[in-house]
Amino acid sequence: MFLLVNIIGIFLFMGVAVLFSKDRKNINWQSVGIMLVVNLFLAWFLTSFSIGVDGVKAAADGFKWLVDVSYQGIAFALPDWVHVKQMNFVTSALLPILMIVPMFDILTYIGVLPWIIKWVGRGLAFITRQPKFESFFAVEMMFLGNTEALAVSSLQLRQMKSQRLVTVAMMSMSCVTASILGAYTLMMPGQYIIAAVPINIVNAIIVTSILNPVVVTPEEDTIAKIGGAGSADANTQTTETGSEEVAEAQVEEEVRAEREPFFSFLGDSILGAGKLVLIITANVIAFVALAALIDKVLTIFAPWLTLENILGVIMFPFAWLMGLNVHDAFQFAQYMGTKLVTNEFVVMGKVSPIIKDFQPHFKAMLTVFLTSFANFSTTGMIIGAFKGLVDRKKNDVISKNVGYMLLSGILVSLLSSGLVGLFTW
In whole numbers, what is the pLDDT of the chain averaged over residues? Predict the structure, then answer.
């Protein structure tokens, strides 16, 4: 029965996208069908087929190995923080970012990461029959993060019509950053973290092609020359802040920047990684403390009235449609709601000590749902990024579609969780 509910839920999530579609007549159902089959295969291959499972476990072990290496640098500077029975959240999950972010930036600087993104994007466009740039961007944002991907695609974005820019903005809600996956794998099952990345890529294209169908002519279906990535500071400084002003300023700086000497580039990357650690730490402390304050105020009126319970009630129907019993669905809904109004680190930090106690179906879907930047604060950061890239008229069109951006991010996370849930019981 729960499997049947899970299947129905997937189609209902897609039905919500159809219901809110801006142009149902121009939805390319053939492309949507192809992408859905591709994602069903990916979900099965990465969670149930031995080769796929071994592959994602190996990738997850690779990230954990990188984290272990980073502890050597942390232990040199802060031995009392590492050589303890139980490292705190900042030391175990966030300080390794100081090594991992520069490592991925080096791969970008020498051209390895852009080469991978280019060819995977082209392959995805060929398979899904979607516009080339949208397919390219879906892959790009999963490696670089939304702000950095927008910055290095600035030339393309300036040439695109407003309707396609709205699609790009909606896709940006569902990204992650490869350099931060190591932190995720320390708190949640690594195999599902890694599996979520390609599934999110395809689902971002599915959802946006339904919500905002755009007819792209052959003349428009081109990819402009991509500018140099420059410093990763544009992404790392704004990933978790939700600040339009900071994002706008950083993207403008990114667009103007020319290719730097290597060690200058590396220094900027390390500085950006340090800022990212501080930003995430500040956000987690502030969000957890504010949630506790809200709970204290709410319990004055009723002992059972808490922020988690309110969010649980709102998100419960969506959680139940993923094949969970009533009790688990309410708990899942609480985590979903908390993630959307705060960020994924708040929820990951909360469930990390008890994640092993969850049932496989619950554990897999929760991990996949949390593996994205989709939350309320991300919308401000994306709009701020576009302000530094396109003219005011186009940016106003994007700003008027904040609701669609949020809906897109939520539906992508729900679809990805539901698809993985089909094969994990």
Answer: 84
